[in-house]
Design a protein that fits this description.
The protein is mostly helical. It is 54% helix and 0% strand. It contains two helices and no strands. The termini are far apart.
Length: 121
C-alpha cells in the first residue's frame, strides 16, 4: 500500500527568493492601483513613469545640492540669535548674521540714500 507523503519543502533559498518576488509583485500592483496605471497602455505607462522618475531625480539632486547649505545658514542664524557673536567666516565684522546690511553705514556703499556722495537732483 503506497503512502501519501507530502513532497519535501523547497530549499530555503528558493523560498526566500519566491517571497521576495511575491513582495515585489505586490508592491508593483499597489503602485499601479494607487496611480491608476493599470488602465493605461504600455506607452502611456512608460511616459508617466519617465516623468515621475525625472521629477523625483530632480528633487533628490536639488535637495542634495542645496539642503546642506540651507541647514548651515539656519544653524548660523540660530547661533547668532543664541550667542550674539560670530559663527564662522560667513558673518560680518559687527556680528550680524549674513544677509543683513552689514558694513553699510550712512553714505557708504551703493545704497539709495540721499546722504553722502550722490549727485543731487
Amino acid at each position: 500500500m503506497p503512502t501519501n507523503n507530502p513532497p519535501p519543502p523547497p530549499p530555503r533559498r528558493a523560498q526566500s527568493q519566491s517571497s521576495l518576488l511575491n513582495w515585489l509583485s505586490r508592491k508593483r500592483y499597489q503602485y499601479e492601483v494607487t496611480f491608476s496605471l493599470y488602465m493605461l497602455t504600455p506607452t502611456e505607462k512608460f511616459i508617466f513613469n519617465s516623468f515621475l522618475f525625472l521629477f523625483v531625480s530632480m528633487i533628490i539632486i536639488a535637495a542634495s545640492l542645496y539642503f546642506p547649505q540651507h541647514v548651515q545658514d539656519i544653524a548660523r542664524r540660530l547661533w547668532w540669535y543664541y550667542a550674539g557673536e560670530n559663527y564662522g567666516a560667513g558673518t560680518s565684522a559687527e556680528g550680524r548674521p549674513p544677509g543683513t546690511d552689514a558694513g553699510m553705514r550712512d553714505g557708504e556703499g551703493g545704497g539709495l540714500s540721499d546722504k553722502g556722495g550722490g549727485r543731487e537732483l
